[in-house]
Design brief:
This is dTDP-glucose 4,6-dehydratase. By secondary structure, the chain is of the alpha/beta class. The chain contains 11 helices and 13 strands. The strands form 4 sheets. A 7-stranded parallel sheet has the order 3-2-1-4-5-6-11, with helices on both faces. It has a two-stranded parallel ribbon with strand order 7-10. The longest helix is centred in the first third of the chain and has 21 residues. Bound molecules: nicotinamide-adenine-dinucleotide and thymidine-5'-diphospho-beta-D-xylose.
């Protein structure tokens, strides 16, 4: 394998994955990204030009996708509309990008027999009760809740069907909530960090007891590279780092990091249909492919992430005001 096409490589996880490929392999990378509001050229601007090229385009554009897929050894497919709150306001781009876009890429991978890795989410499994002793495994039934998670679930099923019906050489990974550098300020952790940098109060949906299973984005990247190089075709792997925390705990950890009072936050309108808890059992990935998370200490990962947002205000500042106006319009 010499060249990889990374869709969505100017977004949060995609750009971190491209950095990981450049620093740990000899692969050359082409990023295909539509440069939506969620993308940033700065996230990959400092990478060597002879190893990383950006093509601005839409994964729904079949002619462009066909040409790019044909000239690469593998595709790693991150591109998506990724934010649940946006999917509740306007599901249309979620259906286009997450479903039609994935279909378009699969057709090209099928035609040119190119290795395909599909990036997905634990949200396809719906949610768990807080006291449920079980966690999600590769055998858990799909039960997505939101327009976002249902379009991701549909995209996973397309990949499975293209493997079985057409022999496409694909793998799938479903990962838990990522945090780390280059994450858009609409998402929970960067939103609260940037509120605190601005001297404002964190905004907690509902009672704040919803649980997310946090993983550092660098661990997601190493897991994806492991699956790309060692994964068995047709298999699904769950990626997680045993990082369950409720949202209130995360907000309190951030308040402490900024030297603020533990109750210095606002409860705001809850997300409609808000999933209660996600939790990943990543035994299969660990035992079959030998992957281990390296950034499992959430408090030091969070401290590094706070520092990154303090040091990189020029990266996030342009998106902050528009994001907060969007939230204000829905009482969040
Ligand atoms: P993001 O919103 O930060 O980035 C998405 C990128 O895709 C952006 O650069 C955007 O411009 C690009 N894009 C969107 N529509 C496109 C189109 N039609 N054509 C080409 N490019 C397009 O998202 P993220 O948080 O980095 O998530 C990346 C992937 O990982 C998604 O597939 C998401 O479902 C999955 N995932 C995310 C998380 C998480 O915690 N953020 C967890 C598990 C899985
Ligand atoms: O201001 C906020 N206050 C708040 O309490 C925001 C933005 C969120 N929340 C809550 C909602 C969730 O319980 O925090 C939790 C995390 O919210 P998000 O960052 O929006 O993430 P989530 O909805 O869990 O989805 C994320 O993880 C799975 C990604 O956005 C998805 O792309 C991924 O598939």
């Amino acid at each position: 394998m010499h060249s990889v096409l990374v869709t969505g490589g100017a977004g949060f996880i995609g750009s971190n994955f491209v950095r990981h490929l450049i620093s740990t392999t000899d692969l050359s990378v082409t990023v295909l990204d539509k440069m939506t509001y969620a993308a940033s050229r700065e996230s990959i601007a400092d990478l060597p030009e002879d190893r990383c090229r950006l093509v601005v385009g839409d994964i729904v554009d079949a002619a462009l996708v066909d040409e790019l897929v044909a000239s690469h050894d593998a595709v790693v497919h991150f591109a998506a509309e990724s934010h649940n709150d946006n999917s509740l306001n306007d599901p249309s781009p979620f259906v286009q990008t997450n479903l039609v876009g994935t279909f378009t890429l699969l057709e090209a991978a099928r035609k040119h027999d190119v290795r395909f890795h599909h990036i997905s989410t634990d949200e396809v499994y719906g949610d768990l009760e807080l006291d449920d002793p079980n966690r999600f495994t590769e055998a858990t039934a799909y039960e997505p809740s939101s327009p976002y998670s249902s379009t991701k679930a549909g995209s996973d099923l397309l990949v499975r069907a293209w493997v079985r019906s057409f022999g496409v050489r694909a793998t799938i990974s479903n990962c838990s909530n990522n945090y780390g550098p280059y994450q858009h300020v609409e998402k929970f952790i960067p939103r609260q960090i940037t509120q605190l940098i601005d001297g404002l109060r964190p905004r907690l949906y509902g009672d704040g007891l919803n649980v997310r299973d946090w993983i550092h984005v660098e661990d997601h990247s190493s897991a994806v590279l492991t699956i790309l190089t060692k994964g068995e075709i047709g298999q699904t792997y769950l990626i997680g780092a045993d990082g369950e925390k409720n949202n209130l705990e995360v907000v309190r950890a951030l308040l402490e990091a900024f030297g603020r009072d533990a109750d210095d936050f606002d409860h705001v309108t809850d997300r409609p249909g808000h999933d209660r808890r996600y939790a990943i059992d990543s035994t299969k990935l660990r035992t079959e492919l030998g992957w281990q998370p390296q950034f499992g200490d959430f408090s030091s990962g969070l401290a590094d992430t706070v520092q990154w947002y303090r040091d990189n205000e020029s990266w996030w500042r342009p998106a902050k005001a528009a994001t907060e106006s969007m939230y204000a319009a829905q009482g969040q």
